[in-house]
Amino acid sequence: MPSLQAIFAIIVVFGLTFSSACLVFDATYNIGTSKIVGTITDNGQKTCTFSGTVAKDKKSLYASCIEGFASYIRTDLEIAAYSNRGNEHLLHVAKESHSTNPRNQYYTLSARMYC
């Protein structure tokens, strides 16, 4: 019986670990200036920051990330890639258009995984 309790304890610990995982990408993109500002949050910790101009002649824009993490978004704003100490993820980005003012049109960009 003690071995059954040990197995149950291990399942509970791993279940809690996996159920709390949440990867969130949120950003805004100004259509007129091509500037993006955003973050990636991994299990409640901000790991990467996007800031800059999305150059259409490049394939992607890289984020500034804390050690052990890396991320980029493709310039078509449809896919963001993320690496957490070698664990690779591709996030399909949802894009929503805002503002009827032609001088200030922008997209909100978002993606969620494991939440």
Describe the structure.
- The chain has one helix and ten strands; from the N terminus they run αββββββββββ.
- With 115 residues, the chain is α+β, with helices and mostly antiparallel strands.
- β7 and β8 form a beta hairpin.
- About 12% of the residues have low confidence.
Task: Describe how the helices and strands are arranged.
Blueprint: H1 2-19, E1 23-30, E2 35-42, E3 45-53, E4 60-62, E5 64-65, E6 69-74, E7 79-84, E8 87-92, E9 94-98, E10 106-113
Antiparallel strand pairs: 1-2, 1-10, 2-3, 3-5, 4-6, 6-7, 7-8, 9-10
Secondary-structure element pattern, one letter each: HEEEEEEEEEE
How many structural units, i.e. domains?
A: 1
Main sheet properties: 6 strands, antiparallel
Q: Structural class, please?
A: alpha+beta
Q: What is the CA-CA span between the terminal residues? A: 35 Å
Q: Which percent bin holds the helix content?
A: 10-25%
Shape: globular
Number of helices: 1
Mean pLDDT: 86
| Estimated radius of gyration | 18 Å
Which parts are unreliable, with pLDDT below 50 for 5 consecutive residues or more?
6-19
Give the oligomeric state of the chains in this entry, treating copies of one chain as homo and distinct chains as hetero.
Answer: single chain
Number of extended strands: 10
Reading side by side through the largest sheet, how are the strands ordered?
5-3-2-1-10-9
Strand content: over 45%
